[in-house]
Specification:
It contains 20 helices and twelve strands. The longest helix has 24 residues. The chain is α/β, with parallel strands linked by helices and 568 residues long. The N terminus is likely disordered. Helix 4 crosses helix 15 and helix 10 packs across helix 11. The strands form two sheets. The protein has a ten-stranded mixed sheet, sandwiched between helices. The chain has a two-stranded antiparallel ribbon with strand order 8-9. The radius of gyration is 23 Å and the shape is globular.
């Protein structure tokens, strides 16, 4: 009886408001766009009648209407990444191929983001937003060797304190802008928008079919707790630990680094196996140490003796931000190897050229409204517990202890969220996030309806480690299965795996649930001959006798990855 009452409370408290029919307009090849009006405030205690507008895109099913299986929502994560741009950049076509063309692939800009309104802005004008973002440091200048040497303690404290002060100014700006989206854009609100989208595209109370990547798995965690009877075929890919995410960032920061060293070791192994196709496999003249040691030595050298690039010092903080970003995308490792090869001989040209090519352009209209480029950080805080109790000393101590324990060389490049949230007010949205508070109830309902969540994760994902996927699996013991794609990369699509692609296809198309914890090899060649001249290596797979369908699946996975990179 207690379980029944708990579930009744859960289900009746999760109603969403009916939506008007959508009007779709063509916006690309096999693409239609629309907007959906939803309540700005879902909290029962609110008297607000304001609405938010959610931007949608649809990649149309390629099978006949009689074969169509409905809609499949996709989200690239972030928080704050544009699902609309993701689908338009090729993810719609790629995911459609992987799922047999049976679904309309639906992307959306989560509230507060992209073309959805109101926009979560931290600055009133594009000029102010651009100027601040250009000046904001990406990382304090810290080297792993400092943390076990007390003579560096004062310098560590100064570096982190100065960085924290800079990030605090961003937190203040986001609060002072007083965007309507600031306290109405948490994952709890996004989950209810997802229900409204499903209502609009597949009918009231239809079930959610969903492939959520990275932070999109947090949206899924909220959805299955709010609407456990409305879960269809869903995949959680590259899992953010929902339990840690609902606490202060002190709980999430250790997860961020668990697999970083494993990913670096993978980089070394793949490079060595590639031989002459990886320039780093051949050490500079007179150098006899292993490649792994050479990379660790480079961290130290850039810290102690920055490279002078025409009067501009290239120090470890720049390298840390670069490698932290690119280690999660293995198809960029040919370029990474070329850049490291240059840095070993104190030539920073390739690194500087890459950073310059990726830099944001100054706004053409300085007086135009800001576009929300920094929304990721307040969106993160909205889903975390109030964090003003996190002290600067906590940040310093965690930086030291986690770096030493995990032997991770660039945790400093991932300190912005904890610094931002500790300097952000403790105010939270009226509708609280579930975190994992109703996960047991959701597991009961899902299991009773024979609904299975497919959890997918790389074994050495440096951003969302396998332990986070296993945590979600443990929270849903009766209603989930875990599939592991071997190797590095953030989310399963960062390296193509034929067997995993086939398992995902079978799950979405026929509902076939794979056995638990099956390991799937990656099938992608990271150092094909002639690579390294562009950011991404050309698609190259290990097999020699793929069928047309198998090659189509591998190419589709690669296409989804390119869509991720296009919106990064």
């Amino acid at each position: 009886m207690t379980k029944s009452l708990t579930l009744a409370t859960l289900l009746f408290s999760s109603a969403v408001f009916g939506a008007a029919p959508l009007t779709w307009s063509p916006c690309g090849t096999n693409l239609d766009c629309s907007t959906l009006s939803v309540p700005l405030e879902y909290a029962p205690s609110s008297k607000s009648t304001a609405n938010a507008s959610i931007a949608l895109v649809r990649y149309n099913a390629t099978v006949s209407s009689s074969q169509r299986l409905g809609s499949l929502l996709v989200n690239p994560g972030g928080p704050g990444a544009s699902g609309l741009s993701f689908v338009q950049a090729g993810a719609g076509a790629g995911i459609s191929t992987i799922t047999g063309g049976f679904y309309d692939i639906i992307g959306w800009d989560p509230r507060g983001v992209g073309q959805s309104t109101p926009l979560l802005q931290c600055f009133p004008t594009a000029e102010e937003e651009y100027t601040f973002s250009e000046a904001l440091p990406g990382s304090p200048n810290l080297w792993l060797g400092m943390f076990s040497n007390s003579s560096y303690d004062a310098q560590v404290t100064t570096e982190i304190a100065d960085f924290d002060t800079a990030v605090a100014k961003l937190a203040d700006a986001c609060v002072n802008q007083s965007s309507e989206a600031l306290y109405t854009s948490s994952a709890a609100y996004v989950a209810r928008d997802m229900a409204a989208i499903v209502d609009a595209v597949d009918g009231v109370d239809a079930k959610l079919n969903y492939w959520g990547f990275s932070y999109g798995t947090i949206f899924l965690a909220e959805f299955i707790q709010a609407f456990p009877t409305r879960v269809g075929r869903v995949v959680a890919d590259g899992v953010v630990d929902p339990q840690a995410n609902a606490l202060t960032y002190k709980s999430q920061l250790p997860n961020d680094q668990v697999s970083v060293r494993d990913a670096l070791n993978d980089f070394v192994s793949f490079c060595e196996e590639a031989g002459s196709n990886c320039p780093l496999s051949i050490p500079p003249t007179g150098v006899t140490s292993s490649l792994s040691q050479r990379i660790d030595d480079l961290f130290e050298k850039l810290f102690l003796d920055p490279i002078d690039y025409f009067g501009t010092p290239i120090s470890l903080d720049s390298f840390n931000v670069f490698l932290w970003s690119f280690i999660r995308v293995p198809v960029t490792w040919s370029l990474v190897a070329n850049i490291i090869q240059g840095l070993e001989v104190r030539n920073a040209t390739l690194l500087v050229n890459l950073v310059s090519s990726q830099a944001a352009s100054a706004p053409t209209d300085p007086t135009a409204p800001g576009v929300g480029t920094q929304s990721e950080f307040p969106l993160t805080c909205m889903d975390n517990a109030a964090s003003s109790s996190v002290t600067l000393q906590d940040v310093i101590d965690l930086t030291k202890s986690i770096s030493i324990e995990e032997n991770t060389p660039f945790l400093s490049a991932g300190l912005t969220p904890i610094s931002f949230c500790r300097n952000f007010p403790d105010t939270r949205p009226l509708l609280p996030v579930a975190g994992v508070s109703s996960m047991s109830d959701a597991d009961y309902v899902l299991s009773a309806s024979n609904t299975t969540i497919l959890i997918v994760n790389p074994s050495n994902d440096p951003t969302t480690p396998l332990i986070s996927a296993k945590k979600l699996r443990s929270l849903l013991p009766n209603s989930s299965r875990l599939a592991v794609r071997g190797g590095p990369g953030h989310t399963s699509v960062s390296l193509a795996s034929l067997s995993l692609s086939q398992a995902v296809h079978d799950f979405f198309v026929s509902g076939t649930v794979p056995a638990d914890e099956v390991y799937h090899d990656a099938d992608q060649n990271l150092f094909p001959a002639g690579s390294g001249g562009s950011i991404v290596a050309a698609a190259s797979f290990n097999g020699t006798s793929y069928t047309e369908g198998e090659k189509g699946l591998l190419d589709a996975i690669y296409g989804v990855l390119l869509a991720f990179l296009a919106i990064a």
